[in-house]
Structure formats: C-alpha cells, structure tokens
Design a protein that fits this description.
455 residues, single chain, alpha+beta, 9-stranded antiparallel sheet
Length: 455
C-alpha cells in the first residue's frame, strides 16, 4: 500500500470527523507535466485543467465529489460565509501554503436555454469540488486528495499514484490527418452579419457579437496532452483550459479575463477591438497604430469598458483604470485592452458577480438582453460553453474566471471550433470574416506537426 494511502487511513481511524467537513490531504511531488495526466486519466468522467504559463500556474482537477455537503460548501464559499473555514480541514499541510490553489472548478454556458446534442455532456452551470487536485502553483508540485466525512473513495487516488513518476518521452510526428466537414461559409456569414447590421440601423441594438463555427473530423491518432502543451507554449499570456465531461472536452487558450479576485481586490479588463500581427516589427507597429486610431474599434472597446464599469459600481468601490487603452499582443492577433482594478464591498457573492458581468459586450453586444435574443435567433448553432465562463475559486477568497473564446469542443473524433467578432455600425462582412479566420488559428494550428507521447 502506498505511504500516502496509509497516512490517510491512519488519520481517519484516529480522528472524529463531521459528515459535512471536507478533508484535504496534501502531498509533495517531484516535477511533473500536469497536462500529461489529462491524457492518462482520459477514462475519468470529469477532468478540469486550467493554467497560465506566464504565471507558472497549472492545476488539474480529477473526478467530482457528488454529495449534498459539496453543494452546500460551494454555496458557502461563494457567499463569503466565515463558516467555510470551519468546514475545511487541511489534515497534514498548512492551509496558508496552498491559498493560491483552486478548490472549486467549473463553467457556465453562454445561452443556457439553447440546446444542441453536441453540448449535451455539459450542464448549463456546473461548479464542483474535484476528488483529486494536481497543482504546480506552489514551490513544489502537489497532489491533494479531498473527501467529505470519513468515507474516502481511494480508487481514483490509487490510480493516479500508479502513474507516478511519469517517464514517457515526447516526439514530433507528422501533422494530424483531418477533414473539414462543415463551416459557416462567407455567403451565410454575410447574410447573418447584414441581418445584425439591419437591427443596428433600426436602432434596436448598438452592437452584436456574431460567431462562426467550423467542424472537422480527426482521422488519425492524436495526443490531447500535446494540444495543451502547444497552446501553453504559443499563448503563455493566455489562460489555457480543458474541461472534460463524459465524452466531450471543451478547451482553448483565452486572452479574455472576466475577473480575478484576491481577497477583496478584483481585477478585470475590457478587451475588444482587434487587428492582425505584422510580418515584421515595423509592420506590426503600423498595425498597432491603426488599431489605436480606428474609431470603430475604439467605440467597440469603450462599449465594453462602460458596461464593466457600470456593473461593477453596485459591488465595489475605488474603481481605477486608464481611460486610454493599451495593446495586448498575442501570437497572431493584437487587441485593445483596458485593465480595471477595484475593491469589492464586503459579502459579495462571487457567482452573483460573475452573472452580473457576463456576458460582456465583447462576446454578446448592447443592449445585452436584445443582443442575446438576436444571437439566439441568427446563429443556427448552440454556442454551449463557447463565450461562456470557465474558471475556479477557493475558500481564501481567490478566483480566476475567463471567457471561453479561442476555443473548441472535441467530442469523440469530431472537433468543432468557434470564432466571433463584434458588429457595429460600419462593420463589413468580408473584413469580419477574415477576422474570424485569424481567431480560428489557435485551434487549427494544433493539427500541424502533431505531438504524440510514446512509452
């Protein structure tokens, strides 16, 4: 029997535990590639990977604790109830040393009422406590085993321990073989965009964000962990995520932060208005200047900024931001960005705030309700978690929520990618089509020089 298991069993045998108490056992690991576990544990029904390479942070939640106590604890933590600290017992590790580590993972769909079989594996809203958490947020990688009361399910923990240490090699193979089976073509796209522009002309809406999708069948073997590795390498400033439920994985690298929280300090950002990167430094600077001086993009950006500021007012104070946007550069695209900082008022419910700020005009439009309804009417597909929310929070009043863009869903061997753009007065369907092509690249580039792991 593994020494970690022995320690857990010894604690249970000697300690009286309330049924509603969450017990956490934390053990140090040698260096591990956390994304590898996503593939090794692919038979597990629920997995959640979330990382930011530039911040040297990566976390993987494995399994889902299904109990009334879990639901109660999640609600207690979200509402900043002091009782949450009493319900969590860190059995063998200083809880202050793991204050940056997630406790609750999950996501919420963009349009909960729209249904499509492609997204049937994912609930409309799902926030859960994993049975096992593997984290590289601390100085050493950690593995945390979690359970309520004194009845742990050790099978999943034993399974993970059997994979340690990971000593597989990685090598590059030819590009994955795939076939595009459907996509929103330019004619259909133009029809949808013009319908949106018509509503803008009638002054029914100011802005609408419309999306295309592309579906591909993967015909050869592929390594999903290599997808995650590539995304993290190419987009270190983005949050790379992968959320698995049953036979489906929603994944991507998103540049758009909904908000982060550290105590009562909240940070969010307006991210709207975009242009391609240049082939060289001079061209890149010219494009940057064009973006900073394009009134259409500035107006689109300011709409998002105004929405966030007005919705933060009810929940926070001391809001600060620079009224002049800056540039956020990614590998193939650059955006107008305005960081926002504020202090939350006491007792703010994290999930209530999330639903107040999402969806922003950057992924929906203005006015929000009318744009939302028009998106449902014009788009022939269900966005599911695309442009929804993914992220985590914990009992230390820390959270990280991202908007699920630059993303795709992988179901069996079919990959469905999504890309959208903001439509305002003066938008051109052809230009917007080319913008969506840029936004497909983070996902489509994964199929080039595919990496597979060899034993």
């Amino acid at each position: 029997m593994h020494k970690f298991i022995q320690e857990i069993l010894a604690f249970i045998g000697q300690t009286p535990i309330r049924d509603e108490s969450l017990i956490r056992f934390t053990f140090k690991l040698e260096k591990v590639e956390i994304e590898r576990f996503f593939e090794l544990l692919s038979n597990e029904e629920t997995l959640f990977f979330f990382s930011k390479p530039s911040g040297n942070r990566a976390n993987l939640g494995v399994g889902k604790i299904e109990s009334p106590s879990a639901g109660k604890l999640i609600e207690t933590i979200s509402k900043e109830n002091p009782e949450s600290n009493e319900l969590i017992i860190s059995a063998n590790y200083d809880s202050n040393l793991i204050s940056e580590i997630p406790l609750v993972f999950g996501g919420e769909k963009f349009l909960p009422d729209k249904k499509e079989n492609l997204w049937s594996d994912f609930p409309n809203r799902s926030w859960f406590i994993p049975q096992v958490l593997i984290s590289s947020c601390a100085e050493n990688p950690l593995i945390i085993f979690q359970f309520f009361g004194n009845n742990p399910d050790l099978k999943i923990f034993e399974k993970i321990l059997d994979f340690l240490p990971l000593d597989t090699l990685v090598k590059t193979e030819p590009a994955a073989d795939y076939e595009i089976i459907s996509a929103t073509e330019i004619e259909e796209w133009s029809r949808i965009i013009n319908a949106g522009l018509n509503e803008i002309t009638k002054h029914n809406i100011e802005k609408i964000v419309l999306a295309r999708r592309m579906q591909l069948v993967l015909k050869s073997n592929f390594s999903f962990s290599s997808f995650l590795s590539k995304l993290q390498t190419k987009y270190p400033e983005c949050n790379t995520f992968a959320y698995k439920e049953k036979d489906s994985i929603f994944f991507g690298s998103t540049p758009e932060k909904l908000f982060t929280l550290d105590g009562n300090k909240i940070e969010t950002e307006a991210l709207a208005g975009s242009i391609a990167r240049g082939a060289n430094l001079n061209e890149d600077l010219v494009l940057e200047s064009n973006l900073l001086n394009n009134q259409k993009d500035i107006n689109e950006h300011n709409n998002v900024l105004s929405f966030l500021l007005s919705n933060l007012e009810d929940f926070s104070e001391e809001i600060s931001y620079n009224p002049k946007p800056q540039i956020k550069k990614l590998q193939n695209i650059q955006h107008l960005q305005t960081p926002i900082k504020a202090m939350l008022k006491e007792g703010v419910d994290i999930l209530e705030l999330l639903r107040k700020l999402h969806p922003t005009p950057a992924v929906c439009g203005l006015p929000q309700k009318k744009a939302w309804e028009l998106i449902e009417d014009l788009e022939y597909f269900d966005r599911g978690l695309y442009a929804g929310v993914v992220g985590w929070f914990n009992e230390k009043r820390k959270c990280e929520f991202s908007v699920g863009i630059r993303s795709a869903i992988l179901k069996n061997n079919m990959l469905t990618a999504y890309a959208g753009c903001g439509i305002v007065e003066g938008s051109d369907p052809i230009s917007e089509y080319h913008e969506t092509e840029l936004k497909f690249k983070p996902i489509l580039s994964l199929l080039e020089n595919e990496i597979i792991n060899q034993p």
